[in-house]
Amino acid sequence: MTSERPGRPVEILLIEDNPADVRLTQEGLKEAKIATHLHVMMDGKEALDFLFRRGPHAGAVRPDVILLDLNLPGVDGRTILSQVKNEPNLKVIPVVILTSSEAESDNIKSYESYANSFISKPIDFEGFLRVVHSIEDFWFTVVKLPEGSPSG
User: Fold this and answer.
1) Which DSSP letter does residue 148 get?
2) Closest Cα partner for 13 from 31, 110, 107, 49?
3) Which of 31, 45, 85, 139 has the highest CB neighbour number within 10 Å of its CB?
């Protein structure tokens, strides 16, 4: 099974406030085996505006997968996860928690809030690239992602 859509790339929403981690994710995805399009939101409010298509993001595409850091300025990742999973048109989007937190409580709370996976970011460059490649291999090659929202 593959999640690649004929005629369009896999839409990825990266919600991450650390510019270095954004660059590492971009580098990892450059080597992707399938076409991807990365949208980066660096704070929680902007991410929610993108997801709910508000303000300057009124025409935003619906992401196929969300890569979400928990520790964000303003609205944190826990709140974003909760809002996504409580919204009928968004709740089917897989949310991959990609965070520097190694706290077991964050892991448990993320899964209790219906995160699809929880990954602690490695601190070294090679480890981070391996994680990005693993995400790509699993979520964009193995998994069949849902096509669009329930209401279209």
Assistant:
1) S
2) 49
3) 139
